[in-house]
Amino acid sequence: MAHKLLGEIMIQAKWIDEEKLNKALKFQVQQSCLIGEALVKLHYATEEQVAMALGKQLGIPYASKENQILNPEKTQGLDKMIPEKFARDNAVIPLFVENNVLAVAMTDPTNIMMMDNIKLVSGMEIQPFISTKAQILKVIDAFFQGQTNMIDTVLDKAVGGKGGETSDTDVITADGKLDLDKVIIGESKGAQSIKLVNAIMKQAISERTSDIHLEKFDEKVSLRLRIDGVLYERSAPPNDLVDAMISRVKILSKLDISERRLPQDGSFSIKYQNRVIEIRVSVCPTVFGEKLVMRILDRGSVELNVKIIGFEPRQMEDFLKAASAPNGLIFLTGPTGSGKTTTLNAVLNTIKSPELNIMTLEDPVEIKMEGISQVQVKPAIGLTMASGLRSFLRQDPDVILVGEVRDNETAEACLKAAMTGHLVLSTLHTNSALEAIPRLLDMGIERYLLASTLLCLAAQRLVRQLCPECRIPYRPPQSELDQLAAESMLNPLPDLTRLTFYKPKGCPRCNNMGYKGRKAIYEVYFNTEEMKKIIYKDADVQKIAVEAAKSGAWNLRASGWRKVLAGVTSVDDMLSVTVSER
Fold first, then answer.
1. Residues near 183 by beta carbon (within 8 Å), at least 6 away in sequence
2. Which parts of 393-499 fold into alpha helices (H)?
3. Residues 276-307 pLDDT 10s
4. Cβ–Cβ contacts within 10 Å for residue 304, how many?
5. Which pLDDT band holds residue 150 (cuts at 50, 70, 90)?
6. Of 271, 439, 449, 505, which cross-links 179 as Cys (Cβ 3.0–4.6 Å)?
7. Residue 240 neighbours by CB under 8 Å, 6+ apart
8. How far apart are CA 497 and CA 518, in angstroms?
């Protein structure tokens, strides 16, 4: 019996329609690619949908974290059967062994040569499963992440190691990136600083670190990693190696190693585990010497999918409704590091299509996206947010993202762009979404213009996700139940006598932290006609909040309680990032 065509399967699943399939078929001929690739490139379908359809077509099971199949067995020695390098290079991951048959997830089960290579490497018959490359690489990161602390390993050698004098060499890729997988370093003491810097970066990436802090004090050295928004101490390097380590980072960042009196900023890129990671560097002089902070921008760890970043269904519907409008203003507010850029990029990733010209103006460009024109501001040469936005209007844009509105000039430029037929998304630094209204009025925006152009206001924070392997269930005390009833804005309330909350414990899977990863919580206010009337009349934030609640919107604290009820985070962590608005 002949296999069904991939397009037919996807139409039957209602993932695409005939019109999209026909467009994809034309695109396939033009680009000489597979139909699945064409559907993904045109944003008509996701990689997951194509993989599931391909699995149905070939009669091969689909594996994912959601269906619990893409979850390698820890006790069967699978890491010895398929080495990490082979797994990464070929995007395959062993799942389990049964009756001398090795189950393996891969992106292309029709690749006979790949199947033969896996047989040779593992010495077993193969049962293929199909999955996406992004999902497989993420599982590889978790599966092969050993418990060995790379920093401690290098420190042990530095203290009690060999003293031989040998050479040290960096392996630089063709495009000028430091390849951490292939650095060749000798055993001389001068090479220890290079080893330590590389070990710290590797350890930080493996622990999902956002920032590395290295600083000297009078009596000690401090090395801290910021993981899921919290700083954790790690084994500190010897005092006499710190200056050499900072000089090493300065050289990589093309900074002046002789300048130790002024702050310096720079960046460099590294290649690690088949992905390119950008490192932003800041060096600042203190009374005890220079302090080094390295921010890790790992594009591979960010999944730009609005369905998984934290929106509640109603909030996602309102935000995407605003983002689908032909023109108007959308503002997302929150403190630095609250995930605003990720959210806005996820929204752009959802709405982008070949029919839309999307342009962004950012400082700096943190997430590079295909199909979107991204511009980094350079105030030193006159390319500011406001001047860049004015030049954008001559580039025939449909959607414009402005990294941040900081002054009157930028606010007015955004307003003019929204009034002349463009959709403008931007961010503001305010404590809540509705506080953006008085902030914009203070910047000189007229009330009647703001009322007519504003589509949506949102705010967000990040809460730490409880580790699903070790979280501990408990019956909440009366004080927490009372707080939930007063602040959750749920109507109707759940049965309080049957609720179960969770708290952190700690296990090897989460490095004994009790938390693993973060989720965003939001407040999203779609600008209704009644809210527009209040903005036009007197812009009273309290009145707007009451009207928004009538239409079904809720605030950050209420969103936080929903994440607690879902077992995503703990009460303590949610309360630490939100403020009660009772």
1. 169, 170, 171, 194, 198
2. 408-419, 436-442, 447-453, 478-487
3. 888 999 999 999 999 999 999 887 667 788 98
4. 18
5. low
6. 271
7. none
8. 29
